[in-house]
Amino acid sequence: MLPQESLSEEVWELRRNKPSDENEDTETQTPEKLMEDLDVHEQPGDVDSVDRVVNQRKEEMMHAHVLPGERVMCFGEVLLAEYRRKRRLELQKMFQLEKGSRLGSNCGFVAHDVIQGCHAGTVFRTNLGLPMLIRRPSLEEFTLFMKRGPAIAYPKDASAMLMMMDVNAGDCVLESGSGSGAMSLFLSRAVGSIGTVLSVEVRADHHRRAVLNYERWRLSWKLRSGNEWPENVHFHLGDLINAAPLLAGRSFNSVALDMINPHLALPTVIPHLHTGGVCAVYQANITQIIDLMEGLRCSTLPLVCERIIEVQYRDWLLAPSLKKDGSFHQRKTSPGEETTESENDDSNDEAHESPAHFPFGSIPYIARPHPEQNGHTAFLVKLRKISK
Prior knowledge:
This protein has 388 residues and is α/β, with parallel strands linked by helices. It is built from 13 helices and 15 strands. The protein starts with 8 loop residues before the first helix and ends with a strand. GO terms for molecular function: tRNA (adenine(58)-N1)-methyltransferase activity.
C-alpha cells in the first residue's frame, strides 16, 4: 500500500465523497423509502406492512382484468384439466384444487398453488413443458368424471328424459334409483329452488355415492359462483316397490325410473302421478322394454306408451387440411387466377406463407364423422297417465 503522504489531492477528494454516496444508495433501499414510494402511511421500519402492501399490489394486478361477475379459481373448487395434441384429446382429468397439492399426469405436473387465483380457462405449462388447459367443468362433464357406483344416466339421455317429462321450475319430481347421482343433479337444476326431487335408492352403497356427488357439486358451485346451489333433492334409502308409506300424501308432476324391473313399481307410483303427467323409463336392454310393455298389457294402469327412443350423437372431425410437415394445404386455383398471382411481387408471396395471411376460403378443410364414436347407452320409454 502507498503511504498516505504520497496520495494526490484527487484521491483524497474521492475518499471524502465515497461515504456520502454509500449513504445515498443505502437510503434508497430502506423500508421507509419503499413505503414512501408505495404511498403507505405506516410506522418507519415496519417491514411487514411493506410486504403486505406488495402482496396487495400483486393481487390487484392479478385481478385487474376480471370482468364483472367473473370469479377466479380458488381452493376447494372442482376443476378440469385438458391436454390436446394433433386434434386429439389426449388427457381429460377432473380434480379438486387443494393448497400444497399438485396435478399429476403422464404430461407432467402443475402445482395447485400456481393455479389458484387465475382465470378459469388458463393454459399452464407442466414441468415437461406441455400446455395444460385448466377450466371449470360443466354439470355434464362433472357427471361424466365424478366417482361412480353404478353406471350413470348419460347426459344425452338425461336431457332427453327432461324434455319428455317437461320438467319446469317449481315441479315436484320422483326419481328411482339414485345411482351415482347424475340424474338427481340434472333434475335439481331443472326444478330450481322452489321445486323438489325425491330420489329413492334401494342399495346403501349407491345411496351414499349419490349423496356425496350431490354435496360435492353443491360445494364447488358455491365457490365458483358465490351462490348456493338449491338443496332441493331429498335422498331416501329404500325400495320403491314397497314405498307406499313414503309416498302417502304426495303428488308428482313427473316420474323418472331407472330400475331393473320398473313395471313392478308402477302400481305404487302411478296413483301419485298427476293426470296427464309423464313417467320416463330408462332401460339399458331392449328385453327390459319388452317386459315393461308386457307388464302394461297385463295391468289395468291408466298409462299409454307414447314413444320408445334411443338417443344417438355423432361426433364430427372438422379441421384445416395439413401436409406432413404441418403446413396448410391450399386450394388449387384456376389458370386465370394463377396468372394474376404470378404478377404479384415476392413480398406478397412471403406474406402469404404465414397461416394468418391466407385469404378467406383458400385453405381446404377435412370434414367427416369422427373415427371414435360413443356406442349404445340406453332406451327411453315415455309413458303418460290418462283418465279412462
